[in-house]
């Protein structure tokens, strides 16, 4: 992200900032408030366009190549979302279809990942498994709990992780819990 | 192949969440068909257009941005699909609901009067076009949203006026053109859609 900022209705939500994340690198980024943390995570995942500045994800510009970006990024939202799917299997089948992945193999892989997320609440575990299903090169986490850091690193494997946090203390705690690459 | 599968997955997932709306729309249209007067052909067509459009606009507005399908929407938005693919899949849902609602209407009305094929075609085309325009309102806010809603309601009114003023093909062609443009617009709006 180069001088990326975001504004809505004339109000600046994210001030211009620059971040570089290399392959396999992990970064916990303090954002100051919830709105900024949520917006920066969405921008990093290529789901929201910055008002100014540029974002490149693995040399792809989300404005010009959105599908290429979405293919290599996994996004995990912060909110404990109500489940729009009747079961975990249906959720995984849906994601596998949208990403063009083999359905049966995806379910097996998802169940294996979920088994490794022991102790993680399903409201966070399900979207995390869904995001990792397509083996992304970048995993974007919107305000994850520090307590889940070891499990997240365990399942994320070699992919780069970018997480947003409200406070510096939360970011540091998440980074400490996470074993640096 | 994959694109078709993705469309089917989105339509199935959304329709399974909209079963109550579908049932309500079909029952309402059936009830309105029962209460409709049948001694006047223009009034019959106008009634069907109004009921169908109301259902189409309501269902179209419920599709996006209302916070009903937050998880589903985030999933769809983060999937490697183009805006137009997402638009086609999302547009199918209100179209299917409207089709079933109109079918319920025509089924009940056929008890009282034999429906003409041209009337059914005009109704279907006009309501689909209005629904597609209303979908564009769902991804906008403020004045543009109101303008799109007015246009969604104006399309069936225009089709109604043209039905009695010209050949039957003209309102059909107009509705098809408006529907196509609205779907393109919706696809472009979804490509730029901001989930915040």
Verbal overview:
The complex is a heterodimer of chains A (about 180) and B (about 200). Chain A is of the alpha/beta class and about 180 residues long. In chain A, strand 1 (about 1-10) and strand 2 (about 10-15) form a beta hairpin. The mean pLDDT of chain A is about 85. In chain A, about 40% of the residues lie in helices and about 20% in strands. Chain B is about 85% helix and about 0% strand. Chain B has helices at about 1-15, 20-35, 40-60, 70-80, 85-110, 115-140, 140-165, 170-190. The relative contact order of chain B is 0.16. The model of chain B has no long low-confidence stretch (mean pLDDT about 90). The interface of A and B includes residues 47, 49, 66, 83 and 100 of A.
Alpha-carbon distance between the termini of chain B?
Answer: 32 Å
The coarse overall form of chain B would be: globular
Average pLDDT figure of chain B: 89
How many DSSP E strands of chain A?
7
Count of individual helical segments of chain B:
8
What general form of chain A does the structure show? globular
């Amino acid at each position: 992200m180069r001088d990326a900022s975001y504004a809505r209705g004339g109000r600046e939500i994210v001030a211009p900032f620059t971040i570089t994340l290399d392959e396999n690198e992990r970064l916990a980024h303090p954002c100051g408030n919830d709105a900024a943390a949520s917006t920066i995570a969405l921008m990093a995942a290529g789901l929201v366009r910055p008002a100014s500045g540029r974002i490149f994800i693995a040399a792809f510009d989300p404005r010009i190549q959105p599908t290429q970006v979405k293919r290599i990024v996994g996004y995990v939202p912060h909110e404990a979302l109500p489940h729009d799917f009747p079961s975990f299997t249906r959720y995984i089948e849906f994601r596998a279809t949208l990403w063009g992945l083999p359905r049966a193999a995806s379910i097996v892989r998802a169940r294996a990942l979920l088994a490794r997320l022991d102790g993680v609440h399903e409201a966070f575990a399900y979207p995390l498994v869904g995001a990792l299903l397509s083996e992304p090169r970048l995993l974007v986490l919107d305000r994850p709990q520090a307590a889940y850091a070891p499990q997240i690193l365990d399942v994320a494997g070699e992919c780069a992780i970018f997480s947003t946090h409200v406070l510096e203390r939360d970011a540091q705690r998440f980074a400490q819990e996470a074993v640096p690459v | 192949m994959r694109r078709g599968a993705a469309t089917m997955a989105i339509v199935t997932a959304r329709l399974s969440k909209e079963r109550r709306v579908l049932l309500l729309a079909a029952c309402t249209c059936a009830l309105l068909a029962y209460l409709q007067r049948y001694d006047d052909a223009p009034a019959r067509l106008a009634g069907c257009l109004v009921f169908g459009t109301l259902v189409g606009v309501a269902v179209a507005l419920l599709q996006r941005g209302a916070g009903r399908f937050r998880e589903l929407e985030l999933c769809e938005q983060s999937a490697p699909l183009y805006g137009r693919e997402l638009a086609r899949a999302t547009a199918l849902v209100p179209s299917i609901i409207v089709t079933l609602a109109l079918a319920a209407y025509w089924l009940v009305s056929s008890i009282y009067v034999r429906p003409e094929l041209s009337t059914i075609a005009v109704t279907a085309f006009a309501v689909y076009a209005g629904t597609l325009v209303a979908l564009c309102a769902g991804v906008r806010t403020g004045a543009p949203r109101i303008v799109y809603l007015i246009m969604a309601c104006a399309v069936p009114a225009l089709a109604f006026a043209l039905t009695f003023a010209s050949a039957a093909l003209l309102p059909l062609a107009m509705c098809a053109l408006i529907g196509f443009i609205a779907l393109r617009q919706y696809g472009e709006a979804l490509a730029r859609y901001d989930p915040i």
